Amino acid sequence: MIIGDNMKNKKGYTLPELLAVIALIALIAALALTTIVQKSQELQDMSQAQFDKVIKNSAKMYVEDHRDLKEQAKYGNSVQITYTTLKNAKLLPDNIKDLTSFDDISIENYSVCLKYVNYNYEYTIISSGNCE
How do the residues of the chain divide into helix, strand and coil, expressed in percent and rounded to 5? Predict the structure, then answer.
């Protein structure tokens, strides 16, 4: 009955052992949370870049269909092409709203500004206001 006697003397973990385990778990959780937040930010930035690319390409297609806009830009006027204009022209994919969780600004406030600078047409995305 030696086994029974050893079991009676064992009372559990000591307080320092429990605190060490809790501290270790907290450290692992903090590292995991930091990694998750960092990866989330990277995905968010990727969504922003993807959205910028989609809306710029849509604006370029719209300008090709409406060549008078290039002429306006060429003579010093900034041309604003709104999200609504691109959506009504059916140049934006239906799932575009899925890409816009990166910002508190409503997608309807986005526009593309067309300017003619140094013999090149520049497309700039703005999230509010007018092209100036």
Answer: 60, 15, 25
Query: Do the beta carbons of residue 131 and residue 115 sit within 8 Å?
Result: yes
Parse the chain into domains and list their residue ranges.
14-126
Dist. CA 62–CA 92, nearest whole Å? 10
Residue 36 burial (10 A CB sphere; 0-12, 13-18, 19+): exposed
Calculate ∠ Cα 79-85-89, nearest 5°: 120
Average pLDDT over every residue of 73-87: 88
**Structure token pair of residue 103:** 């910002």
pLDDT of the residue at 6: 54
Distance (Å, rounded) from C-alpha 127 to C-alpha 82? 10
